[in-house]
Design brief:
- By secondary structure, the protein is mainly α.
- It has a domain of 113 residues: Orthogonal Bundle (Globin-like), CATH 1.10.490.
- The chain has ten helices and no strands.
- Helix 1 crosses helix 10 and helix 4 crosses helix 9.
- The longest helix has 32 residues.
- The chain is globular and about 55 Å long.
- Bound molecules: protoporphyrin IX containing FE.
- The site of protoporphyrin IX containing FE has 22 residues, from helix 6, helix 8, helix 9 and helix 10.
- Protoporphyrin IX containing FE binds next to helix 6, helix 8, helix 9 and helix 10.
Length: 172
């Protein structure tokens, strides 16, 4: 896990101490649930599901928009110091495992962060200081996922080499 954190810091350019500055104060108490509802609605509704980049939009094609919005705002509210709404409904966040099915590449992380930055800028309830802290956390986590999902896929390839099509030493 430490190796993944280090990779996340290196790739994202966000030192671990900046990423977890969100834990220095309770941002949920400061901002309230509605701010996170607005942020996630803005992120998915006006941006991700309408992305002009088909390759990125298609990553979300099998998820219902309403569910994606609720999953995200409940997770963020919980992670920023609020009640465990996400875990009560969905269980442990297990972010790497839950992102395993998706192509979480560096390009995808940058596109995700681009939409999040825009959504954050148009969510006026979130003040600038909080915005910077949350974005540092998200940028670091996005690259943590790039590293973690990448490793997951490598392990799977090692464990299940494709003997049917490409031969034992090549992934399917
Ligand atoms: C869910 C993609 C980054 C937290 C999802 C889903 C997709 C996705 C396709 C399924 C939608 C749903 O059913 O909720 C990506 C991509 C990312 C990224 C391409 C780029 C790096 C992040 C980051 C976080 C995050 C940075 C947290 C800081 C979550 C959570 C869920 C989710 C909590 C809900 C999981 C569940 O309950 O099933 N993501 N994500 N994601 N993502 Fe991400």
């Amino acid at each position: 896990m430490q190796a993944l954190q280090d990779k996340a810091s290196e790739w994202s350019g966000v030192p671990t101490s900046d990423a977890f500055a969100v834990d220095d104060s309770n941002l949920f108490h400061k901002l309230g649930l509605q701010s996170f509802v607005n942020l996630s609605t803005n992120f998915y509704n006006s941006r991700v599901y309408d992305d002009e980049e088909e390759w990125f939009r298609s990553i979300f094609a099998n998820s219902k928009k309403e569910d994606a919005i609720q999953n995200q705002y409940e997770f963020l509210a919980q992670r920023m110091g609020g009640p465990p709404l996400y875990s009560q409904r969905r269980g442990h966040p297990a972010l790497i495992a839950r992102h395993g099915p998706f192509a979480v590449t560096r390009e995808a992380a940058e596109r995700w962060l681009h939409h999040m930055e825009q959504a954050m800028n148009s969510t006026r309830e979130i003040d600038e200081e909080s915005r910077i802290k949350i974005m540092n956390f998200l940028r670091h986590t996005a690259y943590f996922l790039v590293a973690g999902v990448g490793e997951l896929k490598n392990q799977n390839q090692e464990m299940h080499p494709c003997r049917h099509g490409a031969g034992a030493h090549h992934p399917c």
